[in-house]
From TrEMBL:
Membrane topology (UniProt): Multi-pass membrane protein
Main EC class the enzyme belongs to: transferase
GO molecular-function terms, A-Z: protein-cysteine S-palmitoyltransferase activity
Keyword check for Transmembrane: yes
Major localization class: Golgi
Assigned GO CC terms: endoplasmic reticulum; Golgi apparatus
Residue span(s) of domain Palmitoyltransferase DHHC: 191-318
Any Gene Ontology biological process: protein targeting to membrane
Cell location: Golgi apparatus, trans-Golgi network membrane
Catalysed conversion reaction: L-cysteinyl-[protein] + hexadecanoyl-CoA = S-hexadecanoyl-L-cysteinyl-[protein] + CoA
Compositional bias (Low complexity): 162-177
Full protein name: Palmitoyltransferase
Recorded superkingdom: Eukaryota
Length: 349
């Protein structure tokens, strides 16, 4: 009996040591992964400089082009989900967008314009679209509209001190302090308490864990502008997307019309005979595909944004409705109908 107990005790000790070693290994692996993710942005900066090299390598052969143009979006999406899960801000996506825009314009001026197929008016239109995109992006970056903390605290403190306005002799109730009126509106509306910022936030406002603040009518945090999209910059964000998509489509049509004049712009992306006969045309064709992939992704984002506006719902409200199983998917799952705000015209159909 003593031997059996001793053997059982030894087996338990071995299992305990094995579990401790396994936990230590997993904790070491997670800490190493966290350390890599903390410093990944520094190592990803040379990827911006490698972008022209990768596009030039992809222009050498169509098989290389398929491989690189398939791998690049996958790597970008992997890095997006890695940073999004850690809720940390990064300049990589904004830098990648601006660098890609500048490099595509550089190739357009140096490779396409000298061919003589693009006129001065077309070059001016493409240049104006690019400059307008950058200007709108700068305007969007000015701020999403954070909830002002002192104003909200003052409004709520006014309501807690007195429930009726203190009107002096000869004064009317319309001369009540602005803070008191705002506080009454706060109590009547669907204001909510933010435990992180420790403030009362107005209806449809939300806390962004990436930016670390509450945003009025928060839609989502966009990594491509490294900022939130809220009440103050939602309109300029949509204008930036629209101008970029139109400018990009116009530039792609000019490039494909120059290197493949026998085909239309849509069919030239899939069938352009002789495009790999010269390295210059192959590079322009590869960059057209790269621009088409980016434009397609942003066109999808723009479409979802327009549908959300039509249904009077924000991206944050749609995610919360799906999480609580209160929303309904409409239009093949492109938009979530929360049923909370009924002023949109599409919900009547």
């Amino acid at each position: 009996m003593c031997k059996k107990r001793l053997l059982n005790l030894m087996e338990k000790c071995q299992k305990w040591e094995w579990l401790k070693e396994k936990h230590f290994r997993s904790s070491c692996q997670s800490s190493v992964f966290g350390l890599v993710m903390e410093h990944l942005e520094i190592s990803m900066i040379p990827a911006l400089l490698l972008l022209p090299v990768l596009l030039q390598v992809a222009a050498a052969h169509y098989l290389l082009g398929i491989s690189i143009l398939t791998a690049l979006p996958g790597l970008v999406l992997w890095y997006y989900y890695a940073t999004h899960r850690r809720k940390r801000r990064t300049l990589f996506f904004l830098s990648l967008a601006l660098y890609s825009l500048a490099y595509m314009y550089y190739l357009f001026i140096t490779q396409v314009v000298p061919r003589g197929d693009v006129g001065l008016l077309q070059v001016s239109t493409a240049t104006s679209g690019m400059l307008l995109t950058v200007a709108l992006l700068i305007h969007t970056k000015r701020g999403p509209g954070f909830v002002p903390q002192p104003a909200v605290h003052g409004a709520l403190s006014g309501t807690t001190k007195s429930s009726t306005p203190s009107v002096g002799p000869g004064a009317s109730s319309s001369g009540a302090p602005a803070e008191l009126q705002a506080g009454k509106e706060a109590l009547r509306g669907k204001w909510s308490w933010c435990p992180v910022c420790r403030i009362m936030r107005p209806p449809r406002a939300g806390h962004c864990r990436t930016c670390g603040g509450c945003v009025q009518r928060l839609d989502h945090h966009c990594v491509w502008i490294n900022s939130c999209v809220g009440q103050a910059n939602h309109r300029s964000f949509l204008l930036t997307l629209s101008v970029f998509v139109l400018t990009s489509l116009y530039g792609i049509s000019l490039v494909l019309g120059s290197i493949c004049p026998q085909q239309r712009a849509v069919t030239a992306l899939f069938y352009c005979p002789g495009v790999y006969a010269h390295y210059s045309t192959a590079l322009c064709f590869t960059c057209s595909w790269y621009s088409s992939i980016i434009t397609g992704g942003l066109l999808y984002v723009l479409l979802v944004q327009v549908l959300n506006i039509s249904f009077n719902v924000t991206e944050r409200e749609a995610r919360l409705a799906l999480r609580s199983k209160k929303g309904q998917r409409r239009l093949f799952g492109l938009v979530i109908d929360t049923g909370e705000h009924s002023r949109a015209h599409l919900r009547k159909g």
